[in-house]
Amino acid sequence: MAASLFDGADRAGHSGGVSGALVIGEAVLDVLVAPDDDGDGGPAEQRPGGSAVNAAVALARLGRPVQLATALGPDRAGGLIRAHLAAAGVVLIGDPDVLDSTGRAEAVVDATGAASYSFDIGWSLPADVDAVDVPRVVHVTSLGPLVDPGGASTFDLVEALRPHTAVSYDINLRPGITGMGADVRARVEAMAALSDVVKASDEDLVALWPDRLPGESATHLLGLGPAAVVVTHGGEGASWHACHGADWSTGGVHALPADVVHPIGAGDTFAAALIDHLWPLLAAGPDATRDALGDLDPPGWTAALTWAARAAAVTVARPGADPPTRDELG
To answer: Which of 253, 275, 271, 270 is nearest to 312 (CA)?
Structure first.
């Protein structure tokens, strides 16, 4: 895939400008089974989801042009996700019907509020995804680089686009699907090394390196090459860790008040809103992007994380992954 993407005249990277965002990752039908008044399992609530779908919809609702490279099946669940994406203005790349059935994530909540989870998720990329125009930013999320055969194709695509675009990576681990072995850590590190901005939750970092504090793990990731690592800390807010040459910057913001209905999609919304705020700094090619991000001062990072936290606060106050529009954020 990587060998064919820029055959000929180094095409889209220098032949007509740079487009919007390309999001790469899984699409999932979220199925929630909650207890009814008698404490038994009530009717299942089905919602389009998956980290990449949530992030793509969040970016589109903020007014950014978005394309999505994902995998679906030719079934009702795939149709629901297609309609959800179309309503938000997200354009699917190629023919995503590459799975026998669309991925599902089922959560069964008992009378105490505890949930048990089961997953049936495959991951691949459309065969013609290498025809994509060069985007302004590539956003890779969650299972994208971690589950084959799509994982290997994701690395090929990002490596081919890397010289011409900015790269954002939201680690967003799913240990129940991938496990937490050395291969997962190696793939996370390899994608981080290709990225300009890495976003992770503190839970992601503890799962990856349980013998380190999240700040130490963020510093480790920063040393692999990105210009910045942003860490979310749930109700405690978020922090940034940035490096440009010998200049280091770190700091954080508080979480914004929110009446939490469900946290699903909050991290995906945060990542999308962070990209949205940093959009003017995401230049063509890694050197220009990293220089621009490296020049961002602490007030600039504070503003970026505050914007992302505002968007996430709206999402958690709604059922399902329902990110805000730009008008809703004011």
So the answer is: 270
CA dihedral (79, 110, 322, 256) in degrees, to 10, reads -160
Q: Domains in the chain and their CATH numbers?
A: 2-8+21-27+50-103+123-324 (3.40.1190.20)
pLDDT in tens, 230-249: 999 988 899 999 988 778 88
What are the pLDDT digits (tens) for 104-141?
A: 988 776 666 566 778 899 999 998 887 678 899 999 99
**Residues 167 and 137 sit within 8 Å (Cβ to Cβ):** yes
Q: What is the pTM of this model?
A: 0.89
What is the edge-to-edge ordering of all strands in the sheet holding 197-201?
A: 91-92, 66-69, 21-24, 137-141, 166-170, 197-201, 228-232, 238-244, 247-253
- Short-list 34, 68, 33, CA closest to 268: 68
Query: How far apart, in Å, are the Cα atoms of 282 and each of 160, 167, 215, 286, 303?
Result: 17, 9, 25, 9, 16
321, 277, 266, 316: which is closest to 85 by C-alpha?
Answer: 321
